[in-house]
């Protein structure tokens, strides 16, 4: 379903092919547990699969509903095509696994506090060559989650970022960061596909090469843990 949410993106060939194939189908039903993630544009994508006339084109939707709290108008527009069912409404018919929260107290060491401070300072820098500008918010969020998980988890991610920068410096291109970090944070590639920003990197200028080399030097002291250590 997450592929269909991005049908408005030009590069999403699969979703566009499905949308065109169903263009003349009168009755359509889409079932999803979590239709929205990060952006109202995902809602636009799903609704356009059902009926492209509900919201019109993408520019019209952006002008009316993104960047402003026009939720009443959005609800009215959705009413004919969207039906929301809460978990409590279907519990008599669906056997859900009971959710029980387990809380474990944890006191970080001085070294872990220092690592957290260093990572926080690093992510606040205005210019980070290690993070594509279009996906900086997404990758920063992932790094914060890894930092909260364990020191080994964030160590692996930082080492991956250093390796990617080195490849970029050596050959002028590298694997998308979301793909590279997917080993450290399972499911990141799928999450990145749903994120609004794009990973856009142009050719490196000579001045940028020196900057990237300095960034690599900062990340290099981090030793990437083995799968067993994780």
Automatic annotation (TrEMBL):
Designated name of the protein: SNF2 N-terminal domain-containing protein
InterPro entries associated with the record: P-loop_NTPase, SNF2-like_sf, SNF2_N
Pfam families linked: SNF2-rel_dom
Keywords: ATP-binding, Helicase, Hydrolase, Nucleotide-binding
Domain SNF2 N-terminal residues, every copy: 2-91
Record flagged with keyword Zinc: no
Domain of life: Bacteria
UniProt GO MF annotations: ATP binding
